[in-house]
Amino acid sequence: MKSGVAGVGWDPGCLEALVGRERLLCSPAQLAGYEADGLGCKRYRPEAVVIPGDVAALKEVVRELGKLEVPYVIRGAGTSLSGGPVAVEGGVVIHLSHLRAIESINVAERYAVVESGVVLADLEKAVGRHGLYYPPDPSTGTVCTLGGNVASNAGGVHCFRYGVTSHYVLGVEVILTDGRVVCFGGPGGGRGDWREDWKRLFIGSEGTLGVFTRFWLRLIPRPEKVWTFRATYRELEAASEAIRRLASHPAYPSAIELMDPPCVDMVENSPMRVGLPKGSFMLLTEIDGPPELVDGRVEAIAGILRECGSGDVVYSDEAGERERLWRARKVQGGLLGQISPDFIVQDAVIPKAYLGEVLTFIYREAEAEGIAVVTIMHAGDGNLHPDFMFDSRDPEQLEKVERLGKNLMRKVSEIGGTLSGEHGIGSDKSGYMKAHLGEVAEAMQMTVPGLFNESHQLNPRKVFPERRFR
Amino acid sequence: MREAAAIAGERLFTEFLDPVDMTGVFPAEMRLEEINRIAGEAGLRFPLVCAEGATLPEHVRVVDHAPASSRFGPYVDNILGMNWKLPSGRMVRIGERVVKTTTGYDLMRFLLHTGADLGRPTHFVLRLRPLGGETLRGEFTGDDEALRAVGATLCADSWNHWIDRIDLLAGERETVRLQVAVDCMCGEGERFEAYFGQVAERAGATFAKGPSLAETGLPFFSVKGLPGEAARTARRCVEALGGRARALLLTGSVLVYPDKEVKADWIRTLEEELEAIGGHLLGNVPGTRIGRDDEAQWIRQMEEQWKRL
């Protein structure tokens, strides 16, 4: 484990007066749970964790840390997969688990006001009672927080049609690093009393510009009916053609998901098997809407899947059966954790025409390194998640996986893709930013933290490696 | 069709149309009718059109939502990237050519409507949408209460995920009208027509299919506020400024086409009300976008640093 470099000349106990003894964690056993995020293999122990009970206490903590010149990091559920909410330079982790109020749901104007520590699934349940829908749905939805979602501009399986988190943020309330609380936007979804639309820079800023306390989130009417379709293909070309035709079809599927043959085989070789043909690509797609409309589209979608060469197209609008169709896709993440000591879920977006080339590249590189890989993809968006399995206790394996990630990112940049579609850059991919952006664009990017967090005291070394506090 | 290509080094976007990803790069000075002619050859369209004869920079200077934003969202969610000319004349790429990114700070969305002296776009990467195969356009007519009920139903119903515009027009005729447009799968037009008929009947309004709708046109200015206030704001603008206004009921935007002088104090009052709910005004209006003292420093700092790039 790497140790923090802060800790000289300050006593974490000084925060006790601000939050109370029970909300200040300093013992090694308490801090261990905050050493890593979902990336897992890279661990950095903070010197303290504070859990403010409300926004007022949080504001005081931010002010105090500013005076103490101690680096600090904001954390929700810690489900980030990019090494984002971790204390790379030591210092303090501020855990927002107590900012969990869904303050209001305005049904007539279709927006919700929530604190940043609200769990996504809690919001979904709350708005669902009013026939409303908040579409971003990252796979960690039962635990991840909206603060983390906004900080990483989270996506999910249904963002092909519905869009990502930034499409639903009307306004943000932020504690700036100088302790001031400001709102960018609000229920009106515009700039508010600012000349520029600063919220655009804060959404997806990975906790490097300010501390989110509250959001105004746009809601939409919940689609009454959903049809789920599953098909398998022996050849990637056939699956790719199905993806292309689905994505450009005016029935506009809400999700188009792909699992590659190694991933299908992993599921079928496990106790969680669902009966998919081994060695096949599995395609899942959904359409939704009012029954009068969506029921009339079912045959068109099933027809595309069959015409592209699948002999086992199954589909349903019944909840239990739909869950069964999703089962292979939903269990694959848990299986990775069971069969491998560690795994890294990579995240890249590619022009879809390059899917075959990129998958071949991944297989060839992984085989050369002797690292197992399975791949899932939000295929409608071209958002690829190769999962590399390894054992971080073996430094050589970790090195190989890092090399695989680096080579993949280089390939993705070369073909016009991007380094991250929904996980963010964090500390994991910051080293690839200059090569991807070029020097001028990187310099333009670096002016942004220069405005709001010039010393990089807040979440240092994330997004860009030059963002060092010390 | 032109091939996709990204230039190494400065990585500027070159013109392409990618029918698989449904994206394309187009010069900033290209009019939207030309963009849609090119996209249409691949069965695609860029739906956010207020005036076909205008360019995208002309659009985003005065509007952030078009009628089709009801279904597809604002311009910032449909423009993926830009080639950007810095004040120094240097060209740089902003954003991506893929539909989803969390790579770095979102300068793309920040810069699209900026009023700061940070440069200008020369090319846009657009997210295009499939042409549906069948279109349906029509109008609801009735008294204020009936149209209010129609608007409320359309905005609360998941049918609206598929409706290209839900616009209330104020000021053009003696009666207010509510226009809808749908770009749907072949054979679905009848289902939409039946749905609109049911909505009209329940609300005591009348629905009639129309062969065409007048072009929206670029407004003098636009308002972004709460959806539930859009119709009232449109009427208020027409009462004070004459001309006409179009309330985009689902998004809360109002496009305003006055025929009287827009007085600075009147507009400032409206703007202050919008600011209080996190809304704003955009366009040719005097004295707006004053901003706050604390951001003047941020803008100045950005402008100074970017001039040196």
Describe what this molecule looks like in 3D.
- In chain A, the strands form 5 sheets. In chain A, strands 14, 15, 16, 17, 18, 19, 20 and 21 form an 8-stranded antiparallel sheet that branches. A 5-stranded antiparallel sheet of chain A has the order 7-8-12-10-11.
- Chain A has 470 residues and is of the alpha+beta class.
- In chain A, strand 7 and strand 8 form a beta hairpin.
- Chain A contains 16 helices and 21 strands.
- Chain B has helices at 32-40, 56-62, 69-72, 107-112, 144-156, 189-203, 230-241, 264-276, 293-307; strands at 17-18, 23-27, 44-45, 79-85, 91-95, 120-127, 129-130, 133-141, 165-170, 177-185, 206-209, 221-224, 244-248, 253-257, 280-283.
- Chain B is globular, with a radius of gyration of 20 Å.
- The chains are: A alpha+beta (470), B alpha+beta (309).
- The interface between A and B is large, with 94 and 86 residues.
Summarize the structure.
Chain A has 470 residues and is α+β, with helices and mostly antiparallel strands. Chain A has helices at residues 16-19, 28-32, 55-68, 120-128, 146-152, 159-162, 199-202, 236-247, 261-268, 291-294, 298-307, 319-339, 355-369, 395-414, 433-437, 439-452; strands spanning 2-3, 24-25, 44-45, 48-50, 72-75, 92-95, 102-106, 111-115, 132-133, 169-175, 181-185, 211-218, 220-221, 225-233, 255-259, 281-289, 314-316, 342-345, 348-349, 372-378, 383-390. In chain A, 56% of the residues are buried.
